[in-house]
Amino acid sequence: MGQRENWLLADYAGKLARKLVAFKIISKQPISYRLGDTVAAYTLKKFNMKPDFSKLKISIEDVHLITQLENTKTKKQPHKPSVNSD
Prior knowledge:
Order of helices and strands: HHH
Helix content: 40-55%
Oligomer: single chain
Number of strands: 0
Largest sheet: none
Strand content: under 5%
Structural class: mainly alpha
Number of domains: 1
Radius of gyration: 17 Å
């Protein structure tokens, strides 16, 4: 799709794919070969690019899962200040 040198796009897609695969493994859902195409299409669309959807095998269920995971914020542990004994 002409985006091999776009490292920002690759980083985003890689993180998204790892998040999806981890979620599917933990929730014991099957991981389809379509997941890669779905992640690619979702990422290209998110970055306002025009993917050729006819070449991709997209899973609508995975698109919905991506949307849900993208809208879920993770809780970060609060930073604990160090105490100086001076």
